[in-house]
Every structure is written in C-alpha cells, then in structure tokens.
Automatic annotation (TrEMBL):
Name listed for the protein in its UniProt record: Protein phosphatase 2C domain-containing protein
Region of interest (Disordered), ranges: 491-512
Domain PPM-type phosphatase: 212-467
Originating species: Phocaeicola vulgatus
Residue spans of biased composition, Acidic residues class: 491-501
Amino acid sequence: MNIDKVLQILLEDCDGDKAENFLRFLSGKLWNLYDEYLMDKIKMAECEIAWNLNIPNAKENQTYNQTVEMPVLSSDKIAGVDIVLESITGLDEETHGLLLSVAPDGKSFSITGTPSLESFRKDGATAQSTFELTLRYVFTGIEMPSDRPVLEKKVPFVINQDPRKLWKDIPVDWDNMSEPKYKKDDTQSEYIKVEALPDGTPQKDIVAASKRGRSHAQEGKPRDDHFKMIHTDNGWYIMAVADGAGSAKFSREGSRIACEESVNYCIVQLNNNKDFENAIAKYDEQKGDSETDVRKIVGDYIYKIVGTAAFKAHKAINAEAALTQNQPKLYATTLLLTICKKFPFGWFLASFWVGDGAICLYDRKAHSAKILGVPDEGEYAGQTRFLTMPEIFKDASSLYQRLRFNIVDDFTALFLMTDGVSDPKFETDANLNNPDKWDALWNDLKENGVELTDDNEASKDQLLGWLDFWSPGNHDDRTIAILYEGEDAITEEKSEADEPNIENSVEDKNNE
C-alpha cells in the first residue's frame, strides 16, 4: 500500500478544507508523539549515564593538567548510543588561570594551567573556591528532538586555596596600644662585612634576619623575636638571638633587652682582654695533656664574661619590670648568646643557651654539626625555660650547665636561630644532631636565593625573604643569624682528617 492509498482511505468522504485540517491535526499529533518517543529514549540514555567524572581538585598556584574522559554507555537498552561533548564552560584563563578544551572526537575534555583565585579576593574576603562547569553534549545513535538539540550537565570543580593566601597581614595598631608600647618593627635584618686581612685572606661575615610570624600578623600582634650582633675592632664576633614568649605581654621588649644587654656587656669585657686570650692560647697548647687547670681558667673566664652577660640581661629585664610595675614573667624570653674569635691556632667559641631554638657549629666539608648546648624545656612537654626565671641563675652550677666552649680548626657556619626556624627545619631535638639535616638547611638557603658569598651585603634581604618559607603548622616569629665564610672564599686545602673538635661544658670542666 502506497502513501496515496493511505491518504485516500483517511480522507474518504472529506471535502478539501476538512481533509487539510485533519492532516494538520494528525501531523501535529504524530510529531508530538514522536518527540515524546525521542525524549523517552534520551531520558533512558541519561539514566544510564554514570556521571562519575572524578575531576581532581586543583591547588592554587600549582600547575594543573587533567584530561577527563566522558562516560561510556554500555547498557543493552541503548545499544549503539554514545555521548559526544560539544562544549564546556565555567572557567577561563583570565579569571581562573585555567583553560578548558574539548577533544576533537568529543570523548574527553582537558583542564590546564596554573589556577589563581586572586580575582575573587575582594576587600580581604575569603575567595570562592568551588565553581560550576557546564557540559553541553549530544547523543549519537539517537535523533535529538528539535526543542532540545543539545543537553547540559552541571558538575562542580574545586580550586583549593593556597593556604598562604588565607593568612592576613594586619598591621599592629600602635596608636591604640596601651603603655608601655615597646614599639618594634615587623622585620629586622643586618649584614656585617668584615674586611679581608692585609694579605687578602677573606674573613667570615655575619648576616641575620628576623620576621614577624604569620600567626602574629593574622591577629595584628607585634614581632616578639630579636637579635643583635657585632664584630669588634679586636676581632671578636658576638651574636645573640632571643624569642619572646608569645603568652607574655611584653616579651618583645624582654627579647630586645636580652640581646642588647648581653651583647653590650660582652663588648666591654672582651675589649683588650689579653689575659683571657692568653688563657685560650695556653689551653690550646696543652690540649690532650693534663689540662684540668687551664680548662678551669678558661671556664672561669667564660662564666665571668658570657655567663655574667646573660645574668646582666636577666637583671635588666627585672629592672624594667619594676620600673613599669609589671611582673618579670611578662617579659619572658629565651636567649642564645655566642662569642667567637679566630686565633692562629684555630677558632675559639663560647656560648650560653636558655630556652628552645638552636646554636650549631656546622662544617660542610667534614660533614659535622656540633650543637653548642641543649634545647631545654620546662617541667611539662611543650614548655620551655626563659631567661626571666629565677632558677636559671639560682647557683653557679645552674649557670655553668648552660655554658659551652669549643676550639676548632675551621667551620662553614655558626648558626643561631629561634624555634620559628628550628622547629620546621628540624622537627625534633634529635635531628639537631644530624649533619644531614644541616646539609639540607645549607642547601635550602642556597637554592632559595640566599647567596652566602663573601662581602654580599644583599644577603640580609635575601635571608629576610627566605624566612617567608612555607611549613604547615609552623607560623611563629622567625629569626636566624649566620656567621659564615663565603663559599667563593673557601679553599679545598682542608683535609677530611681534621683533628676532632675540643668541646666541653664548663660544668664538666670544673667537675674533673
């Protein structure tokens, strides 16, 4: 039966107008039924799609490159039907730093680039991090209805914020701070260039930097760390770093007083102190022999100079507390203090240490790291001891335990640092004694823009920038001081079979 016969039967006994109206009605009805049929097939196909795209989250400021496969339809109900992606929107390079692209066969799409959320940080608000991707696709093997030629699927896409961007840098409101203000800058950096000897031999230089921690900046609190260092006309290097206790209201002033008073006292005591230097030389001559007496003499000098310097700082803090009618514990601070000088026979170093942080004599060539003291904690885990505590100076033995001295042929660097640096870089006290960890720190400095070369005055700014390193969970103030010989000045003459270091705590010396 052909189409003419069908029409003859349908339109029998109908005039022209009636037949035309009937055909129009029938056409519309059938087309609607056909569209419904198509939509039913599409709905069936959509029900068979497993939209498990598993798009990995992107991380802000980290390169992202992902290809995402479209779902595959494998049900017998819709055999021969495939999904073809026509377009995808929701991200763009200018706003998000990411480019969306569809594969030529429409079977996958790619997200590439380095994501950024800066466009969404307005007036200090936390940036949006979840976005909506719109996938526009069609089915092959199914005729698409005229009113829905393209289908859409919304899927979420997450850009995890750079945790550094979540921290605020709120200025300290000094104007509205109660007295005494004890105003302190957010950063401190210094470089001391020591001129070469007349014969051209390079000397060790000192560089130090201190930076307000993110946890302090987040709340608009001042920096509590401090440092002071000097190279005297008679060749002594004197260095001090201090970490004011975060829980102590005026610890920023306590750390300043500790550094200033202890270093200034050492300057006076080491000025033209030939007797002390002669005692050091005599001790070096007798090392390995019966040296108890000369060691005691050197130890007594260390007690009188370095130990008394720490005690003077303790007393100065107490005096400031009394002047302002505050408790000394409100000025609580650690103190790491060293004196150091080059002699014809080698380097002499002495130190005082109370609290956490680290003092280390590091020799890269010998692959050695000598810790000049012990990070001391309080009665309970997580506590530390402070210079302001009376028990630190309750008797001579207590003070002697915190003093050390060494004579070494040479070294790469003398490090002093607060726990804002030592905690993230070493994690445990045991690691402080691991030379590999100090090698890693030395390389970290070099590889991240700190040029520890001879006469490099820019190193103070480089070191300050380095202190901004990221370490999850470690956001305290950071301070580090380094006495070093520039790598460009280090010769290869030093044998790996150097004589071992002479190290003694002053207390051990007096007990023998």
